[in-house]
Amino acid sequence: MTPKKWLLIASVVGAVLTTATAYFSRVAPPRQPLRHEAQANAAAGALPVITLAEVAGADRGFGPVMEAVLPAAENDGQTEILNLKTGQWRTTPRLEEFNGDVVALMTWIRTNGLNISCQMWPDGLAGCISYNMKVFPLETKRWEDTVVEDIPPIVLSSTNRHTPRTLLVLASGRPKIYSFRTDEGTVGILRLVALSDDRRGVKIRYKLVQARGDSAQTIATK
User: Fold this and answer.
1) Taking 70 as the threshold, does the pLDDT of residue 28 lie above it?
2) Strand intervals (E) in the chain
3) Which of 47, 129, 158, 197 is the most exposed place for a label (fewest CB within 10 A)?
4) What are the structural domain ranges in the chain?
């Protein structure tokens, strides 16, 4: 099945992850230790923090390059979603906790300012799902050569805070570098690097536009 068809399935079946993930249960083995840690932190009122690695310093108008591995969704439909600005993540509640209301679940994701998660399919295809942010491929740019001014105005323009989810497929012939603007106004570029070493997630790198110098709004009006 082609990535394009997967995108159609994701938009029809899975207003999210939860319903679709039940079908993909044999793909991603349980990660109980991580779940237990998340539950313990939640019970203590703390927000878990995903491990980020700073792999390079600030350059070309961006802050440092951050690297993270996004784990694939759990067998029970829950997944960890990363907030790109803060580096924090939340584990989605089960859909039954919202009485099966997908809209309520998506509202929870938006309210918590979450931006990106990982999805894997039975044929080995993997990718990321973006939430509450505009994304635009930078197909003609190399990661190392991209500057803030390369982010197109369509990405920088304000949103209505209901930006549709987007499926970013990790596959040959598909874009791997994207510019983005979250509904909260965080701007940057994102790179899909590869499957994680254990092949149970997707490694990403991203860097945010620095606060000093040109703001996102200033760039958009140039």
Assistant:
1) no
2) 53-56, 65-71, 80-82, 89-91, 116-120, 126-130, 133-137, 166-170, 177-182, 187-195, 201-208
3) 197
4) 3-220
